[in-house]
Amino acid sequence: MRILLTGMSGVGKTTALAELQKHGFVVIDLDATGICRWKNKNTGEFTEYGFTGKNSQWLAEHGWYCDMETLKKLLSCISEDKWVFIAGMSQNIKDFSKIFDKIFILDAGKETIEKRLIERTNNHFAKKGDERDYMFKYTQEQLAQLENPVTIDAYQKPEVVAQSILDYLNH
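Now predict its structure.
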């Protein structure tokens, strides 16, 4: 079974994956693997983001996209009888969401997510106001297009989030 965990930056997707991995599941972080990357919307060329962040003009000209062919190749190497948890969010999520058996949207509320984004040390995206505004806008638009997602309260402790996902899948 292929299971997608998605939601806004800072909601806890990577942390939930780490908890699920403790249970022995196969996990794939689309950001950490480089399967999702920044791409110029006009030229289609992939580009680097940089540690200093970008302004609203750069963000309007670029998007965070999943390389669907690479994802499909990776998943083809994993036995279909295994539960595989994949975490990520991209501007083409509607296109690649169709390859998943179940989709979970993690949500922790705007205030909590903003606090996590500012305080996190494992990712520098959305620490600036322009970046957060961009992220909230595009993520809400993209998530609204998903078919039959299950929303999970990610305000809880990571082990509770992971267990909530497993409980849902086991019933």
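The chain has a mean pLDDT of 90.
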